[in-house]
Design brief:
Length: 342
């Protein structure tokens, strides 16, 4: 699989993980912008360096993990404090180690955290730097541990406390969380207990200049490049265009098809949902009639926040919390929206 230009993002993340840990980093961005791919590339390029130990967990594979699954994802039984993930053949990534006899059914949250800290300390003792990366962290939202008489404890809330301890307080370990769920990012951003403990990094659409260069390198004609630049924003769209060209479809045909599919998906979504008046959802989409980015203030003023949140949840729109703007998840989605409101 080819990897297209993400120099700026790669450099940022490669440098970031080698600085002293000081806060939790949240990597966010529109659906399919390439967050996971860039992060994996960082691991691949840096794992040649023997002093970095990546604990990487991808929760995407699990619909909503149970407590037991969470433990199995994060821990590996064995006699070491940290062990190579044996299911990853191409990447050098690690899991927290735990003794064979450990009973996952009766484990307390404090024990889980002690084991994580032991693994991290073992890495440091070996003269190496631990880096903890969790992809799609919001999937842990629904896991609770028994709080022993004090009510159930939310795993995610408690994990955040641990992450703050590991980063801001003790500077022991980097913690990087990736998510495509921007409403989750918003929740975190507004969570006062996480104030001054976290940083945010946006992996956005590909820049026009990068797209132009990639397309030229891939042998697209001047005319094709100019046409594509109007519609492309995501890396996988480029691979799809190239494949379709090989299959005999012109770029115009492919792009027209994309927009038709997206338009029909939006129409289906807004006509089958029962939560909102269809007219109000259309009003929310109409904000994008003449511009691709809308200031959040405009949405609040027009009293369309609930409708917009529904469209964000359904990955039609993307909320860039840090910059206070809403935009379609891709440029092709923007053209589809325009067809819907016509
Ligand atoms: N720089 C790149 N070069 C080539 N292909 C890429 C690049 N970045 C992403 N892709 C491709 O685009 C698709 C989506 O990428 P990826 O899963 O990394 O995005 P994501 O932002 O993590 O998505 P999600 O929001 O769903 O988590 C994948 O098929 C991936 O192979
Ligand atoms: Mg991802």
């Amino acid at each position: 699989m080819k990897f297209y230009n993400r120099e700026k993002e790669l450099n940022y993340l490669k440098n970031y993980v080698q600085l002293e840990p000081n806060s939790i980093l949240f990597v966010y961005g529109p659906k399919s912008s390439g967050k996971s791919t860039v992060m994996l590339r960082v691991i691949e390029e840096l794992s040649k360096k023997d002093d970095l130990v990546f604990f990487y967990y991808d929760l995407r594979e699990y619909a909503t993990p149970t407590k037991e699954e969470f433990l199995e994802i994060f821990f590996e039984k064995g006699d070491k404090k940290y062990l190579l993930n044996r299911f990853e053949i191409n990447l050098k990534i690690f899991k927290f180690g735990i003794e064979e006899k450990f009973d996952f059914d009766n484990i307390k949250l404090n024990d889980v955290f002690s084991k994580m800290k032991e693994s991290i300390n073992a890495v440091i003792k070996d003269g190496k730097k631990p880096i903890l990366i969790i992809d799609e962290l919001q999937k842990l939202k629904s896991i609770y541990f028994n709080g022993e008489g004090k009510g159930d404890k939310s795993l995610l809330n408690e994990l955040f406390n641990l992450f703050v301890h590991l980063t801001k307080v003790r500077h022991l370990c980097h913690v990087i969380c990736l998510t495509s769920d921007t409403l989750f990012i918003e929740e975190i951003y507004r969570n006062s207990t996480l104030e001054n403990t976290s940083e945010y990094y946006l992996i956005d659409w590909l820049r026009k200049e990068s797209i132009r260069n990639i397309l030229k390198e891939e042998g697209f004609s001047e005319e094709e490049v100019d046409y594509c630049l109007k519609y492309l924003s995501l890396p996988y769209e480029i691979s799809q265009l190239i494949n379709n060209k090989k299959l005999g479809l012109s770029v115009e045909q492919t792009i027209k098809q994309w927009i038709n599919i997206e338009r029909d998906k939006i129409l289906y979504l807004i006509s089958t949902q029962k939560e909102f008046e269809m007219g109000k959802l259309i009003d929310a989409l109409k904000l994008f009639e003449n511009k691709i980015k809308v200031d959040i203030k405009e949405i609040i003023r027009d009293n369309l926040m609930d409708e917009v949140k529904f469209l964000i949840k359904n990955e039609i729109l993307f909320y860039d919390v840090m910059n206070g703007i809403i935009k379609p998840t891709s440029v092709k989605k923007w053209y589809a929206i325009k067809e819907v409101i016509e």
